[in-house]
Amino acid sequence: MEDFVAQWGYWAVFLGSLIEGESVILPAGYFASQGVLDLSKVMIIAFFGTLIADQGLFLIGHVWGKRVLSFFPKLDPPAQKAFLFLKQYGIFYILTFRFIYGVRIISPLIIGTAGFPFGQFVFLNFVAAALWSVLSCGAGYVFGSFIMYHLSPLQRFFFLGGLGIACLCWLLWKAYLFYKKEFA
After folding, report:
1. pTM of the prediction?
2. In which domain, by residue range, is 40 found?
């Protein structure tokens, strides 16, 4: 397992930070705490992945936002929530949307659609991506360090086994919800 993570982990971090974020970044931080991955590389890759994804979604929103939203009516509930958050909290929302469940992916699209200034978003996106990558990777690292030093090998085995089963169940649940939404 460690060889696989060492070989493909950085690619997983990049792709994961483009799409889902925490579900890949937290385990990458854990593997960094175990010496399988380098924490600074994980943070840098996560930073660039989320920066690229969010900047791309902002540009899509800026250019084609209303058309994209009308083409995908299922995006309306989270889009309305994101518009409301943007209106209420402004710059603070732009700095923190990565940490809010349910609006993380759609937020840059909405911010672009709302006509937020491009240059200002680039700067805020840079700051927020740095904050997110350091905090998320750091949380995984601290969690991994805690497990290593405070649990016996047998406790680690059962804890990580249970965590692995929980992650698998979560992934299956997400796949089920996606299938139900898309093909029902």
Report:
1. 0.78
2. 2-150
